[in-house]
Amino acid sequence: MVTACAGGDIEDGPTFSSYTSAATITVGEDELDEDTLGTEDDGLEGDAAGTAEGSPTTTATAEGETGDVCGDGAITGAEVCDGPDLSGEDCTSQGFDGGTLACGPDCASFDSSACTSATCGDGIIDGSDVCDGADLGGETCTSLGFEGGTLACAPDCASLDSSGCTSETCGDGVIDGNDACDGGALGGETCMSLGFDLGNLSCGADCSFDTSGCSNVVCGNGIVEVGEVCDGAAVNGQTCVSQGFAAGTLTCSGNCVAYDISDCISDHGDCCTNNGYPGCEYGAIQTCVCNLDSYCCNNLWDNLCVNEAIDDCGAVCP
Predict the structure, then answer these.
(1) Mean of the pLDDT values across residues 173-196?
(2) What is the pLDDT of residue 70?
(3) Could you tell me which residues are beta bridge partners of residue 251?
(4) Are 130 and 118 in contact (CB under 8 A)?
(5) What's residue 45's pLDDT?
(6) Could you tell me if residue 93 is left (phi over 0), alpha (psi between -120 and 50 degrees) or otherwise beta?
(7) Domain residue spans in the chain?
């Protein structure tokens, strides 16, 4: 359609003036402001996260935060470690000798409380110590395969010292291992060194001491024991006559190692004959008779006294 204008000019179509920013355009039932539409280069305003519909959502963080999650087992952001993830570090890389390194609760530092530093000589096995002083970690010579002996720790705590361990061979005549003795080798021991009074010590077939030949002397108990000749009235069947005397009473010495022959007589003397006071030159017989008949010692040693000496006091008369 062609419209004629005043002045005879003919225009090809309607002429529109420029729209302002406040102009609106009706599209269907909606009216959109030009400001809302913007220009081609302005793009579209998105939601608060600034993403187009259908794209992944990333949680925004406050200014200065890293987004690290301590405790998820993975080192992120400024974390030094996280749970079991120690970034390849351990106690030795941290300057210790051993132990177990852990991660601090804030993931910002390592927890070295379970790490150890070896101190050889403190009597405690720690760090790289195999042993330390008397602390042998429960090991002994026998646990190492020896028969016996004394296990020790090397001065540097790096190894066990088995030089004091032995392999026993009983019967070779050499005291070793657990041998107390071996054959004739008694290690300088005797019955007396083992607490007995006397006797002969020997070595048993199992290389332990045989003390059956040892004894303890108890002089005065009336029993003749090993090492004793007699004991009190027990004179082992001996008499003055068996000891070469003519008569008398044999007794035992106070130490039980010899006979007491002081009351033995070598001949009959004048105890068998009538004689004057005191009547008998042998003290034991005279004392015996005088205890029975004081007249014999105070007045006259007569035939009655002689008979008493023979019958009651051991006098041997021809």
Answers:
(1) 89
(2) 93
(3) 260
(4) no
(5) 40
(6) alpha
(7) 71-117, 247-313
Q: Are 253 and 260 in contact (CB under 8 A)?
A: yes
Q: How far is CA 228 from CA 19, 78, 81, 225, 259, in A?
A: 150, 96, 88, 5, 10
Tokens 């027990």 correspond to 234
Q: Buried b vs exposed e over 69-103: b needs ≥16 C-beta within 10 Å?
A: ebeeeebeeebbbbeebbeeeebeeeebebbebbb
- pLDDT band for 129, please (50, 70, 90 cuts): confident
Distance (Å, whole) CA 241 – CA 164: 63
For residue 110, what are its two tokens? 């390592």
Alpha-carbon torsion 211, 213, 214, 218, what sign?
Answer: positive
CA distance 64 to 77: 12
Residue 165 phi/psi, 5-degree rounding, is: -85, 150
Q: pLDDT of 73-128, one tens digit each?
A: 999 999 999 999 999 999 889 988 778 999 999 999 999 998 877 788 889 888 77
In this structure, what token pair is assigned to residue 227?
């090492």
Each residue of 249-307: pLDDT tens digit? Answer: 899 998 888 999 888 876 656 788 887 776 777 778 888 898 999 898 888 889 899 89
Report how far Cα 62 is from the mean position of its chain's Cα atoms.
62
